[in-house]
Every structure is written in C-alpha cells, then in structure tokens.
Design brief:
It is built from three helices and six strands. By secondary structure, it is an alpha+beta fold. Strands 1, 2, 3, 4, 5 and 6 form a six-stranded antiparallel sheet that branches.
C-alpha cells in the first residue's frame, strides 16, 4: 500500500512532474444538477453525494482526454483507486441547485495523482474544497504500480 509521503524505490521527495508542467494542464469543469436522490429528506445534499459528484468529474476529466476507464482496465489490468481524501464542507447545496465540479491536477507521482477539487454553485458560491489522491493499482493483485507513461495524454512523467 502506498503511504502518503512514501515512494517505493525512490528517495527524492519531489513529485515526478514539476509544478510548472502540471499548471500547463487546465482545470476541468463538470456541471451537476442536484436531484432528490442526492438529498436528505429536507432537500439538503447528503454528504456522500459530494463524493459521487467528484468521482464523476474525475471520470469525465479522463474521458475528455480520451481515456475510457473500462478500456484502460481491459488493456492494462490497471485502475485508478482513491487512496485518500481531505474534504472541507463549506456550505450546503440544495435540491435543484446547479453546481460546477472542478478537477485540477496538483501533483503526479510514479504511482499516484493528487487532485484539487472544488464544488460551487453556478453563482460562484464555494461549497466544497477537497484534495483527492488516486493510486494506480494492478486490480488482480491489488497493489500499487507505476502509472504507464502513455496512460493519460498530457500527463506524462
């Protein structure tokens, strides 16, 4: 298992991609509408729904880059799994709100990617700030592995 701050076989603590290279990849935005299924009985978005919104936005980010996750898994035997999350719940979203979920690559390591994600209302009101680290995992052995150089266009080591 990858532990935050450790990199098997690598003693240099700096990310493989420099900050300058990462900032060349623009943030990705994905619109979401809040439905009854996303809320509690009072019409307030249930906290776990935000996780689904962020997951969908990361999946759509990959799709926008030409990466279909099922094809990637079938071809390589690999998948990206959430390793860790830190979420600040700033304000609540409500039934029928139009939201914008943002995905931004913050760091690329040998076997993981750190994303900064936000969720805001269409009017710009910030609701969620999160950091999500995903690990590239061999799904048969369930162990972290190096991200293939050609896995994500524009995000190469």
């Amino acid at each position: 298992m990858i532990h935050q701050g450790s990199r098997p076989g690598r003693s240099d603590p700096r990310p493989i991609l420099s900050s300058q290279e990462i900032t060349t990849m623009p943030p990705f935005h994905w619109p979401v509408r809040v439905y009854w299924e996303d809320t509690d009985a009072g019409g307030v978005v249930y906290h776990a729904s935000y996780l689904r919104f962020m997951e969908r936005a990361r999946s759509e980010w990959l799709r926008s880059l030409g990466v279909e996750q099922s094809a990637f898994k079938a071809r390589t035997g690999l998948a990206f799994l959430v390793r860790s999350m830190h979420i600040d719940f700033l304000k609540a979203a409500l039934l029928d709100d139009e939201l914008l979920v943002t995905v931004e690559v913050k760091e690329r390591r040998a076997a993981s990617i750190l994303f900064g994600q936000t969720i805001q209302r269409r009017d710009g009101t910030g609701l969620i700030q999160a950091q999500v680290r995903v690990a590239c995992v061999d799904v048969e052995r369930m162990v972290p592995v190096r991200i293939p150089d050609d896995a994500i266009p524009g995000l190469t080591p």
